[in-house]
TrEMBL record:
<dbReference type="InterPro" id="IPR046539">
    <property type="entry name" value="DUF6604"/>
</dbReference>
<feature type="domain" description="DUF6604">
    <location>
        <begin position="11"/>
        <end position="260"/>
    </location>
</feature>
<feature type="region of interest" description="Disordered">
    <location>
        <begin position="158"/>
        <end position="192"/>
    </location>
</feature>
<feature type="compositionally biased region" description="Basic and acidic residues">
    <location>
        <begin position="176"/>
        <end position="187"/>
    </location>
</feature>
<protein>
    <recommendedName>
        <fullName>DUF6604 domain-containing protein</fullName>
    </recommendedName>
</protein>
<feature type="compositionally biased region" description="Acidic residues">
    <location>
        <begin position="158"/>
        <end position="169"/>
    </location>
</feature>
<dbReference type="Pfam" id="PF20253">
    <property type="entry name" value="DUF6604"/>
</dbReference>
């Protein structure tokens, strides 16, 4: 079931009508109206229910209009929203335009709409001059920018909306001019809802409205998913963001289906697939379209003239999946031979194809991939991980029954492939490149473990690295299933990595998990060896040393940008050799008393020549990809990517991290942040849009190559140790290397520079005079040479100062993106679209200016 803070369109409708009715009753009571004769209390398990007759609505409105009570903005907004979805339902099942809604069609449904519209018109017009009405939501002649401003204003109006599916309200809307109503506001409202009693007996069954809301929500999710993959296709987001967002949307779709099934009368819809088939037949009848295929159209399981209706009701995939069930036989392969039903023309973009061409390509895609799911069930092999679609379709092969969730999953599978078109295999190519990168880094790491032994790195930690390398080679760089497939179907030509190539979502999720594992290993290495932190302290010291040439180690700059400087530098970046050395020792876990003795030179040489002798527990860094870390925990548990409650909590925490808007521009997530703080409710699309944005923001941090930076730091230390060996012996004795570990070279560099500085200060207590040859302050030859060493290592031909940055430019879609300008404005418009669509406007109306991509699904 949906989490209680997520509201689908039916939840929202119930909450809206409940909120309006509650306001109507309480306001009428405040005017002295006796409402007992207009309502009929009853009880249900969910709490108190009050039934209001249609005539009662009119009388309540009469009393309020007569008293000239002002209609609050929030109440007006939710009433308009309730009317809008009911009208969409009426239009969808009469195939008329909204302007043609009249008594000739579904009179019962129309009658209720008329009652609500009459209430809205009378309450608005009676005090219209006193209301600061929000801008009209849909005006074709208004520029896009103004429309978006209006949408965000409408969205912000709903900050005090009610909080649960039955319309429970913990507050009565604020009405500034109605103090009496404010005084009557209860402190706590028990679970109470209001239902409409149709005394005329002509209202359509509520189950049909619930079914419409369900299909409408699922198709809205489909539109969001298609837009997500269109962004990937254009290079605006990465495949991991697209895949994780889509997988989460599919999981939410399953929960929306289960929620609707718990409310639908099974007498109207016995099972989930009957929702699809019944609504499909009903719409065809209302359009006066024959359900039977024409005799001259052989091979079509239904009349393809109704393909648009079948697509919206998920009937196409339901029919295809049901036709596949008899094919599933014990101990038999079910691979599909392409072209079995004839040649398929895919040269044109999907939206430009005829209905017959669309159906032919969809049928071939469905039957082709279903064989892969049958094979996975047969061999009982565990993938690297399973996305929701793969898991669901494997379940269908076991139970041999089609549900609405099966149909929805397969339709999403088709939508993603059709959106990508010729680029459908691009995600599998991204996965392969990531796998090659992982193999290189893991192989290098195993070599480093042997070259630079570390006491803190036991042999038991090497085994997981070796296992990860082996799995990458066996499952991602080599198709181990090909021999098994060839054995089961001799003579059949199998395509390598067919499942990955046909399933962008599975490829993206696998790539996500692989990068998460690489980040885990990289951070473990950095924290265990402490390889990066010493050079960070040295790099910061050298940047402030006047005798050191200008340094530019870009990879270190990015590392500091991705992590907390205050933690690494113990409060902030230090300046000067004494303060830098203190912070370095404190970071290493050395007690403050010991730090003071070493810095002041009061310890004996043999006591400060080895850093480890006096250290405690060095500090460590944690991953800054908070959302990715939450997903990683879920993935590790069952090799799936569930949309768990901890993940939802991390997504909602992201809203709190969005800075307040300081400009006159629109900030969709600032508005969502206000909404979440006020109501603690979101729509599924608002949650998914926030997830997509936060995943995209984390992508460069997730792809940062910690293993590569670790390798280069060790290489730098080794070069510095060789160059400064004589100086280290001079200041620390010949045994300074006993038990030596490479990163400690920075300790000796900084310690030598500190002693040199103290010696100069002892010789010249007043500091250097202007008569000195250089005319500058004290300097350190050690620091100058260390700076030159960094310049030589990072710059020039073969320089290694920005390898990690170059990798990010190659592998990351978001690294280096322009944060301002036309691109960001267009992205903001998309954010507004998906965060406001369910709250503020009709999707059909808003689609008029949404980049020309999202056409209304019901005309």
């Amino acid at each position: 079931m949906l989490p209680p803070f997520l509201k689908n369109s039916y939840h929202r409708y119930k909450a809206d009508t409940n909120r309006f009715t509650e306001w109507l009753i309480k306001t009428a009571i405040s005017c002295g109206t006796n409402v007992e004769e207009l309502s009929k209390p009853s009880s249900k398990k969910s709490g108190k229910v009050t039934k209001i007759t249609l005539k009662g609505y009119a009388k309540l409105v009469d009393a309020i209009v007569k008293a000239q009570i002002k209609l609050p903005k929030g109440i007006k907004f939710v009433l308009e929203r309730a009317i809008a979805i009911r009208k969409r339902f009426a239009v969808a099942f009469r195939m008329h335009s909204p302007d043609e809604v009249d008594a000739k069609a579904d009179e019962g449904h129309l009658h209720f709409i008329t009652v609500l519209e009459s209430a809205l018109e009378r309450l608005s017009s009676s005090v219209g001059a006193a209301i600061d009405s929000p801008k009209k939501q849909v005006e074709r002649e208004v520029p896009t920018g103004h429309q978006i401003s209006g949408l965000m204003e409408s969205l912000a109006l709903d900050d005090d909306e009610s909080g649960d599916e039955d319309g429970d309200s913990d507050s009565v809307p604020n009405v500034e001019d109605d103090k009496k109503l404010k005084d009557d506001k209860p402190k706590t409202v028990q679970s109470q809802s209001f239902e409409i009693e149709d005394e005329y007996g002509i209202e359509v069954p509520e189950s049909f409205f619930i079914a419409f809301c369900l299909l409408n929500d699922l198709n809205t999710l489909r539109d969001f998913i298609k837009e997500t993959w269109a962004e990937y296709k254009e290079g605006a987001i990465d495949v991991m963001t697209a895949a994780v967002t889509t997988n989460s949307a599919v999981i939410l779709g399953k929960e929306i289906i289960n929620d609707a099934l718990s409310k639908i009368d099974r007498a109207d819809f016995p099972d989930s697939t009957s929702i699809s088939t019944t609504v499909y037949k009903l719409k065809c009848l209302l359009e006066d379209v024959t359900l039977n295929q024409l005799r001259d159209k052989r091979g079509e399981p239904f009349n393809l003239d109704t393909l648009e209706i079948a697509d919206w009701t998920l009937s196409t995939t339901t029919i295809l999946l049901e036709s596949f069930i008899p094919v599933i036989q014990p101990n038999q392969a079910s691979f599909y031979q392409k072209g079995h039903f004839g040649a398929v023309d895919t040269s044109k973009p999907y939206h430009q194809r005829s209905n017959k061409e669309k159906f032919s390509s969809d049928r071939e895609t469905v039957f082709d991939i279903l064989g892969e799911f049958v094979f996975l069930v047969r061999i009982k092999n565990i993938l690297w991980l399973k996305d929701e679609i793969t898991e669901t379709m494997m379940n269908m092969m076991v139970i041999k029954k089609v549900t609405l969730h099966h149909a929805f999953c397969m339709q999403v599978f088709l939508d993603v492939g059709n959106t990508l078109g010729a680029k459908k295999e691009a995600p599998s190519n991204d996965l392969r490149m990531t796998s090659l990168r992982a193999k290189k880094n893991l192989t290098n790491l195993l070599g480093l473990i042997k070259r630079f032994p570390c006491q803190s790195w036991p042999k038991s930690m090497t085994r997981p690295v070796e296992d990860m390398l082996e799995l990458t080679e066996m499952q991602l760089l080599k198709d181990v299933w090909i021999p098994l497939k060839q054995k089961s179907t001799p003579g059949f030509k199998h395509v390598e990595f067919h499942l990955f190539k046909e399933s962008p979502i599975l490829s993206g999720l696998t790539m996500y998990d692989l990068n998460l594992n690489l980040q885990d290993v990289g951070l473990l290495v950095v924290n265990t060896w402490k390889s990066v932190f010493p050079v960070l302290h040295l790099y910061n010291l050298l940047e402030h040393a006047p005798e050191v040439p200008t340094l530019d180690w870009k990879d270190l700059d990015v590392f500091l940008k991705f992590h907390d400087e205050k933690s690494i530098f113990i409060g902030g970046r230090p300046e000067g050799i004494e303060e830098s050395f203190k912070r370095f020792l404190l970071f290493w876990g050395m007690p403050a008393t010991m730090v003071s003795k070493i810095v002041n030179g009061t310890t004996k040489p043999e006591n400060n020549s080895r850093l480890r002798q006096a250290t405690g527990t060095p500090r460590a860094i944690a991953p800054t990809t908070v959302l990715a870390t939450a997903f990683h925990v879920s993935m590790a548990e069952d090799r799936k990517a569930p949309f768990s409650l901890p993940i939802v909590e991390k997504v909602l925490e992201y809203l709190d991290s969005v800075p307040d808007s300081t400009s006159s521009g629109i900030n969709a997530f600032h508005v969502l942040k206000r909404k979440w703080k006020s109501t603690k409710t979101l729509t599924p699309l608002q949650l998914l849009a926030t997830l997509r944005r936060s995943l995209s923001a984390e992508e460069p941090r997730l792809l940062f190559n910690y293993i590569g930076l670790h390798e280069r730091c060790l290489e730098f230390y080794e070069k510095a140790r060789v160059q400064f060996h004589d100086k280290f012996v001079q200041y620390n004795g010949p045994n300074y290397q006993k038990g030596y570990e490479t990163p400690y070279v920075v300790f000796y560099i900084m310690h030598t520079a500190l002693m040199s500085f103290k010696a100069q200060r002892a010789m010249f207590p007043q500091g250097p005079t202007t008569s000195s040859s250089s005319g500058v302050g004290f300097g350190s030859v050690m620091l100058r040479k260390a700076g030159e060493q960094i310049v030589e290592y990072t710059s020039g031909k073969g320089g290694k100062g920005e390898i990690a940055c170059k990798e990010l430019r190659v592998f990351s879609k978001m690294y280096g993106k322009v944060s301002e300008g036309l691109e960001s404005r267009e992205k903001e418009q998309k954010d507004v679209y998906w965060t406001a669509i369910e709250d503020a406007v009709d999707p059909k109306a808003l689609a008029m200016y949404q980049y020309g991509r999202l056409d209304a699904r019901i005309r």
